[in-house]
Amino acid sequence: MIDQKYFSTSEIADMLEVNRYTVSLWIDHGEMKAMVTPGGHKKVARDEVARFIRERGGVAPAGLESENEIKIYIVDDEQDVSRYLSKCINLVFSGIKTVIFDNPVPALIEIGKSIPNMALLDIYMPDMDGINVCRMIREKKETGNIKIIAMSGKPDRNLINRVMEAGADEFYYKLSPIEDLIKAISKHLGMAPDEEKLRKLTKKHVD
């Protein structure tokens, strides 16, 4: 089923373990984009199903998305922050898949299965702090090239020095403008954001 280009509401419901009427409501409310066949059936493209899953913090089933897609893992125990960053990234970049983790342990497990291009890594988290996570990523040959942007709401100079020594490529202060993070992502992944969408995003924050 994963190999097909479009999915029916029933197929999506089975995939997400919800009622198919719930899927229809998502479509009717504009949360999931769909096409309607001449016979009145709703069909959703596989990329749209994948986008819907990842924006809600889930991991798309294996094979649902293109292997060529750029992946960014967002690891932060504050889910509101993660969802906000995910939406901003998906708004201004095309071809990027964001996956949200609220705990570093499952994030490391997933990194071992599917290596991302970049990790946005919060420093203060339960179970394991971001500095140790950064070190673990850098220690393995398979994951050593992952771009890491460490994040914190506390711009402590000692903290910044420690996380950079652990192997982070950059530090992002969470209270800084979102365009600072977008520029950092652009620099380290070599991808240009959609400038018009970025202007709209930053203007919205200023207003």
Please tell me about this protein's structure.
This protein is an alpha/beta fold. The protein has 2 domains: 1-59, Orthogonal Bundle (Multidrug-efflux Transporter Regulator, Chain: A, Domain 2), CATH 1.10.1660.10; 66-206, 3-Layer(aba) Sandwich (Rossmann fold), CATH 3.40.50. It is built from 9 helices and 8 strands. A 5-stranded parallel β-sheet has the order 5-4-6-7-8, sandwiched between helices. Strands 1-3-2 form a 3-stranded antiparallel β-sheet. It is globular and about 60 Å long. The protein starts with 5 loop residues before the first strand and ends with a helix.
Tell me the strand percentage band. 15-25%
CATH architectural group of the largest domain: 3-Layer(aba) Sandwich
Ranges where pLDDT stays below 50 over 5 or more residues in a row are none
Basic shape:
globular
The total of helices stands at: 9
The N- and C-terminal alpha carbons lie at a distance of 45 Å
Helix residue percentage: 40-55%
Number of structural units classed as domains? 2
Secondary structure blueprint with pairings:
Layout: E1 6-8, H1 9-16, H2 20-28, E2 35-36, E3 42-45, H3 46-55, E4 70-75, H4 79-92, E5 96-101, H5 104-113, E6 118-122, H6 130-139, E7 147-152, H7 157-165, E8 170-173, H8 178-189, H9 195-206
Parallel strand pairs: 4-5, 4-6, 6-7, 7-8
Antiparallel strand pairs: 1-3, 2-3
